[in-house]
């Protein structure tokens, strides 16, 4: 399957919700510790034998830690930049006109961006300044700032069913559930004893959430019963960096970790680890599953490589 | 509604339609749910999927949507008094506003915002950090990672164009501290701090007292409270207080700079480092005094890190560039010293021992070089008239006169102290016996030896005093030449830059006020890719004639290359003040405090007055390089080139600017133009190499560096770039040739087609 080599270390990869052959990749120089960033938009050839082509690339003055596609416009992208800015890009406009917006409100590195899939009019960013911000396309400033976490917020994700509800994962060892109509968080889930780097909602059961932590484990929770996790998935050798539920199969999840592997899990069966992909040679930090093509996966890591492959096949196979 | 169902389930939740006053949250939620359902309807009218970009309007109807979006009201002041939720809000806000917020505010003040911290970041350009220094750092790090795989000791080289600003350091400090906590989560906080100290110390960055601290950990209070509240309420004051106390305690321990020292002493005993240091065959007390204890301690800690990593037997993990990066940096094998980064490579005092050892191991090479020199000495007719007087030369002179290896100066012997001097002498004797004379110039040896001595005496000797002082070559064959200036000009015209330098040096030694000789000397050094010497020569030229326009322009360019904005502005402004056509533009009071914007404006005015003056466009191009507005710089140089298409140095400037704005392919075209006009243009050859390296074509870049070095083996930067490219191209086999500066071998291995 096709491979793309980026000049910088990969940080995030996302499939376009509009085009089955398109992915966006966020990268940062020097492992994101210091230097520039670049946002790539890549087109996969329909023939898997042909290489991935780069549609466009945007340079940033600091590393890009995450990227999110707009759910309302096929050409819009939101980038979470390490200098604290949130930038909007429009692929339909010439490169010189981009970024079309640059919001400077976060005071520390912005670590994640997530576009609202239900309302499709707003997106969330979470930052190392301990806050989450809610933005819309039509406002020059953020709509709201959610400040309750007491350490870096690494990820915030909209509920796939309810357009006003999201979950946030933080280094303060809690996941919080929020309703934007409410003043504060609605629920605090002390999900791990260590920093939580990511969380995601199940796409078929809007009460199920998965959390990934530096304690190397993934836990699956039913928010109605927050005392005990539904299951704890062990298998990663280092901190788990991202977790993502399958858009097609209820019980499937994919995760990536500092142990350089990408793992597929079925959280309802005893032997939960479905498959382990060992193709990256550095920390695997970005992973996604296509909404449009069942089983199509993409991953990136600090080895500067972006892989796109069909689940069950070898990502490195030519 | 949905939220309530989701969180509490239908059974445990009181009837949402009948909130009681005792549950202000519920009341509030209800009020809000009512309003938002309307909103949702409204929003459904908006087309949800619009696959063209023209269908949306930013900032249109702003007021409407703000009012409609649920939750937006929370960032506004709450109406006080009579609403049911007000009491709730009051307590909610005060919980947040107490110590917790104060403490964080304090932290934020300490930090400053990232934008403030990032010195040198210019908001106009998105690419402002993409200049050469950044890429030098990057390739450097990669080369150094690769050197680990080949098992070749990494030689800390100076990074000529690298300067880490305070903002950059802050950034490295903060980010690496957060990332380290992800990696070493199961280790103790002390361990993590030790790792960070090691890393930061090697980078000459102060340790963590300003960095973002660790996560506050799990609050037992919170959990209890949580269980009580059945997940429906938020933590109250006491949870926050608990955190505050914990955090303060934490900060206290971390603010204590002696903490690490204590822990180190506990591990190794007070004299631990001393005995270890002694093991490394060092005897000179002078050197030991110079050793930075913290470096040693930090490096010691890193051995622990290496052990931790070694516990993971996955070979892939062992090869991780990032982990090697962390561990090698921590071992002090990479030194980025902000202050001295533009000087000769100085090993940190802690690394000194290793350095010393390495040099000792390279003894034969050194001897070889020395031998070559001896050959040269015999051919030199007249001894140098000018010599920087320090030990090595004395020794060399003595040696020359006696021509006997037994006449080794005592001082020299002392420097080698316990090392196996005899072995070396034998080897040297053997080589003399074989009569293996090479072809390398005397300079090569002198330089290598100088460097060596510099490293030996680094701890006490090196100062900024050498900056701006012109360093003459030893053993100048042109010293007795009847007209060295004419000879120098001729050699320069032929493109024999290194020879021209020698002839011109002979001239300025004879006639130290010769502006033209100094100027040409400066240009020759600049074209030979040696900006330090170029600046020194140009400064002498400027002393002799403070109004020479070419000199002022050249000084501006050289300082720009060295990223010294203030100095560059001073000379470029001086150019304007001394130019007959433009001096009226320059208000005399400006020279006291030069700002980039003022100078740029003046030159833009000058360009309007005479759009056909190529020099003005050149200066503008240089200025835009200073402000990293590379697009404008490229336009300026292109304009100048239309007026002066035969100016090879202008083509090189264009190329360098294009390279800085990540247009490596275009840059290579421009360099090629420069080389077509002047085939012996060392700087363009080296720049060509850099552009290929930036494109990831390391093999090709090596060929160009080698070509440049063949023409000027003294181009220090090019040697370092070559080293980086060699390791990036996995040509560790040629590292030895690079370190011993064996150009014959390198040329044979990397011929330029």
Automatic annotation (TrEMBL), chain A:
A molecular-function term among this protein's GO annotations: peroxisome matrix targeting signal-2 binding
InterPro entries per the UniProt record, alphabetical: PEX7 (IPR044536), WD40/YVTN_repeat-like_dom_sf (IPR015943), WD40_PAC1 (IPR020472), WD40_repeat_CS (IPR019775), WD40_repeat_dom_sf (IPR036322), WD40_rpt (IPR001680)
GO cellular component entries: cytosol; peroxisomal matrix
Keywords in alphabetical order: Cytoplasm, Peroxisome, Protein transport, Repeat, Transport, WD repeat
Entry keyword Metal-binding: no
CDD domains registered for this protein in UniProt: WD40
Subcellular location: Cytoplasm, Cytosol; Peroxisome matrix
Source organism, top-level taxon: Eukaryota
WD repeat residues: 103-145, 146-188, 189-231, 233-275
GO BP annotation list: protein import into peroxisome matrix
Pfam families the UniProt entry points to: WD40
PANTHER family associated with the record: PEROXISOMAL TARGETING SIGNAL 2 RECEPTOR
Family, similarity comment: Belongs to the WD repeat peroxin-7 family.
Biological role: Receptor required for the peroxisomal import of proteins containing a C-terminal PTS2-type peroxisomal targeting signal. Specifically binds to cargo proteins containing a PTS2 peroxisomal targeting signal in the cytosol. Cargo protein-binding triggers interaction with PEX5 and formation of a ternary complex composed of PEX5 and PEX7 along with PTS2-containing cargo proteins, which is tranlocated into peroxisomes by passing through the PEX13-PEX14 docking complex.
Protein name per UniProt: Peroxin-7
Source species: Senna tora
TrEMBL record, chain B:
TM annotation in the entry: none
Span list, region Disordered: 1-89
Repeat region (TPR), residues: 515-548, 614-647, 648-681, 682-715
GO MF entry, a single one: peroxisome matrix targeting signal-1 binding
Cited InterPro entries: PEX5/PEX5L, TPR-like_helical_dom_sf, TPR_rpt
Start-end of Polar residues biased regions: 47-64
Gene Ontology cellular-component annotations: cytosol; peroxisomal membrane
Any Gene Ontology biological process: protein import into peroxisome matrix, docking
Cell location: Cytoplasm; Peroxisome
Pfam families: TPR_1, TPR_16
Keywords for this protein: Cytoplasm, Peroxisome, Repeat, TPR repeat
Principal subcellular localisation of the protein: cytoplasm
Gene3D superfamilies assigned: Tetratricopeptide repeat domain
Family per similarity comment: Belongs to the peroxisomal targeting signal receptor family.
Descriptive protein name: Peroxisome biogenesis protein 5
Organism: Senna tora
């Amino acid at each position: 399957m096709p491979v793309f080599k980026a000049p910088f270390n990969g940080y995030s990869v996302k499939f376009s919700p509009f085009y089955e052959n398109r992915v966006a990749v966020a990268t940062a120089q020097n492992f994101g510790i210091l230097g520039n960033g670049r946002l790539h938009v890549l087109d996969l050839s329909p023939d898997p034998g042909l290489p991935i082509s780069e549609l466009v690339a945007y340079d940033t003055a600091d590393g890009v830690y995450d990227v999110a596609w707009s759910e309302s416009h096929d050409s819009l992208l939101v980038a979470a930049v390490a200098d604290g800015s949130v930038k909007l890009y429009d692929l339909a406009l010439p490169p010189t006109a981009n970024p079309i917006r640059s919001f400077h409100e976060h005071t520390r590195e912005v670590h994640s961006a997530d576009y609202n899939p239900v309302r499709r009019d707003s997106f969330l960013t979470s930052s190392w300044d301990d806050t989450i911000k809610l933005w819309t396309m039509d406002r020059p400033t953020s709509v709201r700032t959610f400040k309750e976490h007491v350490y870096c917020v690494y990820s915030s994700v909209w509920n796939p069913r309810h357009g006003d509800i999201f979950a946030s994962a933080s280094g303060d060892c809690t996941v919080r559930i929020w309703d934007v109509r409410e003043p504060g968080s609605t629920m605090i889930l002390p999900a791990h004893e260590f920093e939580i780097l990511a969380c995601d909602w199940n796409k078929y059961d809007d009460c199920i959430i998965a959390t990934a932590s530096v304690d190397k484990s993934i836990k699956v929770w039913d928010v109605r019963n927050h005392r005990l996790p539904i299951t704890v998935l062990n298998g990663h050798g280092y901190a788990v960096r991202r977790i993502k539920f399958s858009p097609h199969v209820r019980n499937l999840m994919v995760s990536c970790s500092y142990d350089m592997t990408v793992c597929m899990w079925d959280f309802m069966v005893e032997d939960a680890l479905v498959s382990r992909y060992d193709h990256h040679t550095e920390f695997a930090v970005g992973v996604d599953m296509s909404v449009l093509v069942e089983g199509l996966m993409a991953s990136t890591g600090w080895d500067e490589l972006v892989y796109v492959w069909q689940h069950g096949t070898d990502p490195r196979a030519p | 509604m949905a939220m309530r169902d989701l969180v509490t389930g239908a059974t445990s939740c009181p009837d949402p339609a009948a909130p009681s006053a005792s549950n202000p949250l519920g009341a509030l939620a209800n009020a809000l749910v009512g309003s938002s359902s309307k909103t949702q309807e409204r929003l459904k009218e908006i087309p949800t999927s619009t696959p063209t970009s023209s269908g949306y309007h930013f900032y249109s109807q702003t007021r409407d949507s703000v009012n409609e979006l649920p939750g937006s009201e929370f960032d506004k002041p709450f109406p006080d008094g009579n609403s049911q939720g007000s009491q709730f809000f009051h307590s909610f806000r005060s919980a947040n506003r107490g110590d917790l917020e104060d403490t964080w505010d304090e932290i934020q003040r300490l930090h400053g915002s990232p934008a403030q911290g990032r010195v040198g970041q210019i908001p106009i350009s998105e690419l402002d950090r993409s200049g050469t220094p950044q890429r030098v750092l990057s390739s450097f790090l990669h080369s150094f990672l690769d050197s680990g795989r080949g098992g070749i000791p990494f030689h800390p080289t100076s990074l000529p164009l690298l300067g880490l600003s305070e903002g950059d350091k802050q950034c490295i400090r903060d980010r690496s501290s957060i990332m380290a906590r992800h990696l070493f989560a199961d280790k103790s906080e002390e361990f993590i701090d030790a790792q960070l100290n090691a890393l930061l110390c090697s980078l000459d960055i102060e340790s963590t007292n300003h960095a973002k601290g660790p996560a506050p950990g799990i609050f037992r209070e919170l959990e209890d409270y949580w269980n009580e509240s059945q997940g429906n309420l938020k933590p109250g004051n006491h949870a926050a207080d608990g955190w505050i106390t914990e955090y303060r305690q934490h900060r206290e321990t971390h603010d204590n700079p002696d903490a690490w020292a204590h822990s180190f002493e506990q591990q190794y005993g007070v004299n631990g480092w001393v005995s270890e240091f002694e093991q490394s065959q060092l005897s000179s007390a002078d050197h030991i005094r110079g050793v930075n204890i913290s470096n040693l301690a930090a490096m010691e800690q890193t051995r622990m890190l290496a052990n931790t990593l070694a516990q993971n037997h996955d070979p892939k993990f062992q090869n991780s560039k990032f982990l090697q990066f962390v561990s090698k940096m921590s071992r002090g094998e990479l030194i980025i010293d902000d202050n001295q980064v533009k000087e000769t490579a100085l090993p940190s005092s802690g690394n000194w021992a290793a350095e010393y050892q390495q040099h000792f191991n390279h003894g034969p090479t050194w001897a070889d070089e020395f031998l070559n020199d001896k050959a040269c000495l015999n051919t030199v007719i007249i001894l140098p008239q000018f010599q920087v007087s320090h030990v090595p030369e004395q020794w060399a002179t003595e040696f020359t006169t006696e021509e006997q290896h037994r006449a080794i100066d005592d001082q020299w012997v002392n420097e080698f102290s316990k090392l196996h001097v005899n072995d070396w002498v034998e080897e040297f004797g053997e080589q003399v016996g074989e009569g293996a004379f090479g072809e390398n110039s005397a300079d090569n040896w002198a330089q290598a030896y100088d460097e060596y001595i510099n490293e030996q005496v680094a701890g006490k000797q090196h100062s900024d005093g050498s900056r701006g002082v012109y360093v003459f070559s030893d053993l100048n064959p042109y010293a007795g030449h009847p007209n060295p200036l004419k000879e120098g000009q001729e050699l320069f015209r032929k493109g024999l830059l290194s020879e021209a330098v020698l002839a011109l040096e002979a001239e300025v030694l004879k006639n130290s006020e010769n502006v033209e000789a100094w100027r040409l000397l400066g240009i020759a050094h600049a074209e030979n890719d040696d900006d330090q010497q170029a600046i020194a020569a140009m400064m002498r030229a400027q002393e002799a004639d403070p109004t020479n326009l070419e000199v002022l322009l050249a000084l501006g360019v050289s300082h720009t290359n060295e990223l010294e904005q203030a100095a560059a502005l001073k000379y470029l402004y001086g150019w304007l003040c001394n130019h007959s056509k433009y001096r009226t533009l320059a208000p005399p009071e400006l020279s006291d405090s030069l700002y980039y914007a003022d100078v740029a404006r003046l030159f833009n005015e000058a360009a309007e007055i005479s759009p056909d003056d190529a020099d003005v466009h050149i200066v503008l191009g240089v200025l835009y390089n200073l402000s990293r507005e590379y697009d404008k710089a490229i336009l300026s140089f292109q304009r100048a080139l239309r007026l002066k298409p035969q100016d090879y140095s202008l083509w090189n400037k264009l190329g360098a600017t294009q390279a800085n704005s990540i247009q490596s392919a275009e840059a290579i075209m421009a360099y090629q133009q420069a080389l077509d006009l002047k085939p012996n243009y060392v700087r363009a050859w080296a720049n060509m190499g850099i552009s290929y390296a930036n494109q990831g074509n390391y093999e090709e870049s090596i060929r160009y560096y080698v070509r440049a070095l063949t023409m000027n083996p003294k181009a220090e930067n090019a040697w370092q770039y070559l080293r980086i490219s060699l390791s990036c191209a996995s040509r560790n086999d040629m590292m030895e040739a690079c370190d011993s500066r064996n150009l014959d071998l390198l040329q044979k291995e990397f011929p330029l087609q």
